[in-house]
Write a structure and sequence with these properties.
- Pathway: Carbohydrate metabolism; hexose metabolism; Carbohydrate degradation; glycolysis; D-glyceraldehyde 3-phosphate and glycerone phosphate from D-glucose: step 1/4.
- By secondary structure, the protein is α/β, with parallel strands linked by helices.
- A hairpin with a 2-residue loop joins strand 6 and strand 7.
- It has 15 helices and 13 strands.
- A 6-stranded mixed sheet has the order 1-11-10-9-12-13, with helices on both faces.
- It folds into 2 domains: 246 residues, Hexokinase, domain 1, CATH 3.40.367.20; 157 residues, 2-Layer Sandwich (Nucleotidyltransferase, domain 5), CATH 3.30.420.40.
Length: 499
């Protein structure tokens, strides 16, 4: 009986061991199945975001076509192709002291720029930033602009100008107003609506430069709004001041937009428009560009549907910093729902650039962000690697599409190397002129991988021979300094040349 008992115990232990092993193996099998599902989702994302050079060239062509359509008629394109009325850009001859006011959010800035009369000769620049009290953002036009004018007056009175005479001189101001405006002249525009937390009803439908000038008059400040622009036009002005070959400007940051120099005779929707220069800066509002060639995924569709502006700003939602992290979050959320790789759904938008550019062996920065920002501890290394890959796929698409947008502008104005070739001659860089595009925005300047993908795609689309003539040049503070430069260009000593 003893031997039977021992055998029975042995069998029982063996059965139990087999059962435990079966559970462990079953878990591993299920785990592997889940991981394969996650990898399948990654592969699906890569295919959906794929931007081969053939597709990018289709986007280039579509951008150029939409630009033509937007210039031909109002509402003829997703691109608004707005007239800025800026028909002259700073050329380096500007001399004297000029001011700028940059209002586009919960802070405003005032600047004083002293120009020396030679290209790139900014002798001195003073900048002051002020927060706008919360109550003024929903108050009245008089209260808001009186507050701004008071600060501007104090800033002006601190100027030490040895050439100041006893007679008060009229100062020239460049006004950067980054809200939706219908421009009516180089120095005036009507507010269409407020954004960014502002809600002051008695300004909507009014001339914003007039509101500011009336406030300056009430405060005893002898100053004229010489120019009203958005930040993109200011960036082009600064870029052209620093380099005469600058023909376009792009902002790629939280949002994105572009403007460029266009021939007047190409602006068909304004027949009879005359400028002494034969050209004008066009504000594209390119964030709203759309084409069937854009690689749209289910995550883009979900993001658009949940956004405050569905079916709007389609291009911006694929390339701008405001949206890239949210796309990544939605991808990770779906992976978590399919395979529970995080233990919980990521509910906060991740810091995509910091995770993507983590080059430590253990991806310590990715682990820290998950732990401290997303509140998800103990993420395994293989999952952290997966997250970096997702960031890479989304960022690569964004950078390459931004490059296609830039080449689209160059194609429209004949600066992509394909124009001027006749008689069946092959494409050559022999006639390609040096072409500079001014760029601002943290996504481009601070996110190395985004910038590298954009440059890589630019060379792929244009070819190395042509790409060597296209220079992307970072400018700093086009929204402020550029506005002051334009104030100098359009000072009261000059004559408005747009008819």
């Amino acid at each position: 009986m003893g031997r039977v008992a021992v055998v029975a115990v042995t069998v029982t232990v063996a059965v139990a061991a087999c059962a435990v092993a079966s559970v462990v193996v079953g878990r591993r099998v299920r785990s592997r199945r889940k991981w394969r599902r996650v990898l399948a989702l990654l592969e699906e994302l890569e295919e959906g975001c794929d931007t081969p050079v053939g597709r990018l060239r289709q986007v280039v062509d579509a951008m150029a076509v939409e630009m033509h359509a937007g210039l031909a008629s109002e509402g003829g394109s997703k691109l608004k192709m707005l007239l800025s009325f800026v028909d002259r850009l700073p050329n380096g001859s500007e001399k004297g002291t000029y001011y700028a006011l940059d209002l586009g959010g919960t802070n405003f800035r005032v600047l004083r720029v002293q120009l020396g009369g030679q290209r790139s000769s900014i002798l001195e620049k003073d900048v002051e930033r002020q927060p706008i009290p919360q109550h003024l953002m929903t108050s009245t036009s008089e209260n808001l602009f009186d507050f701004i004018a008071s600060d501007l007056k104090e800033f002006v009175e601190r100027e030490r100008d040895s050439s100041e005479t006893s007679l008060p001189r009229r100062r020239e101001l460049g006004f950067t107003f980054s809200f939706p405006v219908k421009q009516t002249s180089v120095s005036s525009g009507i507010l269409i609506k407020w954004t960014k937390g502002f809600h002051i009803e008695d300004v909507v439908g009014r001339e914003v430069s007039e509101c500011l000038e009336q406030a300056m008059a009430r405060k005893g400040l002898n100053m004229r709004v010489a120019i009203l622009v958005n930040d993109t036009v200011g960036t082009l002005a600064l870029g052209h001041y620093l380099d005469a070959d600058t023909v376009a400007a792009v902002i790629i940051g939280t949002g994105t937009n572009a403007c460029y120099w266009e021939r007047t005779d190409a602006i068909i929707k304004c027949q009879g428009l005359l400028t002494s220069s034969g050209g004008m800066v066009i504000n594209m509002e390119w964030g709203n560009f759309w084409s069937s060639h854009l690689p749209r995924t289910m995550y883009d569709i979900e993001l658009d549907a949940k956004s405050p502006n569905p079916n709007d700003q389609g291009f911006e939602k694929m390339i701008a910093g405001m949206y890239l992290g949210e796309i990544v979050r939605r991808v990770l959320q779906r992976m978590s729902q399919e395979a529970d790789i995080f233990g919980t759904d990521p509910s906060k938008t991740p810091m995509i650039a910091a995770m993507h550019e983590d080059d430590s062996p253990e991806l310590a920065e990715v682990a820290r962000i998950f732990r401290e920002v997303l509140e998800i501890p103990d993420v395994p290394l293989k999952v952290r690697k997966l997250v970096v890959k997702v960031c890479d796929v989304v960022t690569r698409r964004a950078g390459r599409l931004a490059a296609a947008g830039i080449v689209g502008i160059l194609k429209k104005i004949g600066r992509d190397g394909s124009g001027g070739i006749t008689g069946g001659r092959s494409r050559s860089d022999a006639r390609m002129r040096r072409t500079v595009v001014a760029i601002e925005g943290g996504l481009y300047t601070s996110y190395t991988m985004f910038r590298e993908y954009l440059h890589e795609a630019l060379i792929e689309i244009l070819g190395e021979d042509i790409a060597q003539h296209v220079i992307l040049k970072v400018t700093e503070d086009g929204s402020g300094t550029g506005a002051a430069l334009l104030a100098a260009t359009y000072s009261s000593n000059s004559v408005d040349s747009v008819q």
